[in-house]
């Protein structure tokens, strides 16, 4: 197949699957540039923040730390996307209805070649409709509860299980997750986190904090009908439940 110098990104959490897919791509489109092979939502968000948009993404729907659609939420506009999935028929019907290309795992080389040929025929005038189709598809695959976060520490990434996180806080322009040992910066806002955490375990008490119920050591009454919390690990400043959130906090905490 004739190459157009296409620049690609593969997002796949199984290393062997990503390697196999990359090999098939280079055999079908010899001059294609595979810019990155990414393994998680968190790693992908960092990459797209720091790099220009590629021509094409191979996107696994189900990743270890969330959904591929979590990545699309962070993009202002979409490149061409080929979804890779092991989903059942109901999900495949959603792809077909929205005219979006997908490959069912394990990926077959002939199907991959056919998909490349179809993408080559997408006209520039169809771009707006394509963007709308992706948006429609996103609404049919709601994000699930996040099980892990990938934190960048220097040149390396560290995977943190949500079970090991005590609370999240915002300070000096950055959002941090707090484990028993340390506070680590993450590339999320508290608004984004609120929608990706189990609401039975985590609660946003004010503009600065989302806390885990197991992190609460003590609860005290505070002036202006607020509550003062003592957390574990201890935070350096007072941790206050804002007045407008006290009632819902009490319900959540079983008070």
UniProtKB/TrEMBL annotation:
Positions of post-translational 4-aspartylphosphate modification: 60
Keyword Phosphoprotein: yes
Domain HTH LytTR-type: 149-255
InterPro entries documented for this protein: CheY-like_superfamily, LytR-like, LytTR_DNA-bd_dom, Sig_transdc_resp-reg_receiver
Keyword Phosphoprotein (UniProt): yes
Keyword annotations of the record: Phosphoprotein
Organism of this sequence: Roseivirga echinicomitans
PANTHER family documented for this protein: STAGE 0 SPORULATION PROTEIN A HOMOLOG, TRANSCRIPTIONAL REGULATOR-RELATED
Stated name of the protein: LytR family transcriptional regulator
GO molecular function: DNA binding; phosphorelay response regulator activity
Domain Response regulatory: 7-120
